[in-house]
Amino acid sequence: MTKNNSLATIRERNKIKRLTGWALLYLVLIALFIFAIYWQTKRVNTLNFANGEIQLTTSKTKYTVGDSISYTLKNDLSEPITLVNTCPQNPLFAYEWSNNSWIRIHDTASSSACLNQPKQRILPVGGTYTQSFDNWPNLFNKPGIYRIVGLATNYTALPYADFQVVAKPVPVKVQTQTQVIIQKVITPIYIPVPVTSGSGGGGGGDSGGGGGGDN
Predict the structure, then answer these.
(1) Are 73 and 83 in contact (CB under 8 A)?
(2) Cβ(140)–Cβ(95) below 8 Å
(3) Are 140 and 63 in contact (CB under 8 A)?
(4) CB–CB of 123/75 below 8 Å?
(5) Measured between alpha carbons, how far is 19 from 153 in angstroms, rounded to an integer?
(6) CB-neighbour burial class of residue 146 (10 A; exposed 0-12, middle 13-18, buried 19+)
(7) Per-residue model confidence as pLDDT tens for the chain (215 residues)
(8) Cys bridge to 93: 33, 149, 187, 204, which one at CB 3.0-4.6 A?
(9) E strand residue ranges, 9-150
(10) d(CA 75, CA 82)
(11) Read out DSSP for 92-104?
């Protein structure tokens, strides 16, 4: 009986030790988790975001289908920014207004369009960069309202620019009408005055009398 009690006591002690060990392990894990959250929060709060803004504009606000569309980025931040070349994918983020929402659209340039292009470009403070979408002709190839959006590291805002693309005007055919005017011209006919016989005789007498006087 005493031996059985001793075994039960030993088992109970071992059980308590195991439970204590698991409890300590859980406490250590919880402490490490809390410390990781605290360290990450402190790290985010100490990030330095650049002062100023990035301006994104287009050359026009309205284009015709087939026009060359270009954009300009201006760095008005207090530090340089890095522009990543995404060729053959279109630059920036492009959206089309459809069914009361912005739908993202894509286009891919030919492989030759990306030759000899740098992978990155540093835009200094106050610097500008202009690029066209000519290498992505299917991006804005139909009438609609479009938006392009830029993205920069350590910059919370999203600079964007909206513009409209309209259809080409249909040429108007001018139909000319030729009006023929026919004018009736009446030519007068000359009718001579008839000579009477009495007038003729008197004339003859004058001629004869004149001749006699000369002889």
Answers:
(1) yes
(2) no
(3) yes
(4) yes
(5) 49
(6) buried
(7) 565 667 677 777 777 878 888 888 888 889 888 888 877 765 554 455 567 889 999 999 999 999 999 999 999 998 998 888 999 999 999 999 999 999 999 999 998 999 988 988 899 999 999 999 999 999 999 999 999 999 876 677 889 999 999 999 888 776 766 666 666 666 666 666 666 655 444 444 444 444 444 44
(8) 149
(9) 52-58, 62-64, 70-77, 81-84, 93-98, 101-105, 120-123, 128-132, 144-149
(10) 10
(11) SEEEEEETTEEEE
Paired tokens of 49: 């975001």
* Residue whose C-alpha is closest to residue 73's, from 163, 158, 164: 158
Phi-psi region of 52 (alpha: psi -120 to 50; beta: other; left: phi over 0): left
Taking the C-alpha atoms of residue 12 and residue 17, their distance in angstroms, rounded to an integer, is 9
pTM: 0.58
What is the residue type of 70?
Answer: S
* Sequence letter at residue 118: P
Inter-residue contact 134 to 125 (CB < 8 Å): no
Query: How far is C-alpha 30 from the geometric centre of its chain's CA atoms?
Result: 53
Q: Are 127 and 74 in contact (CB under 8 A)?
A: yes
Which residue carries 């009986």 as its tokens?
Answer: 1
Tokens of 166: 């309209």
54-69 as b/e: b if 16+ CB within 10 A: bebbbeeeebeeeeeb
Q: Which two tokens stand for residue 152?
A: 């920069």
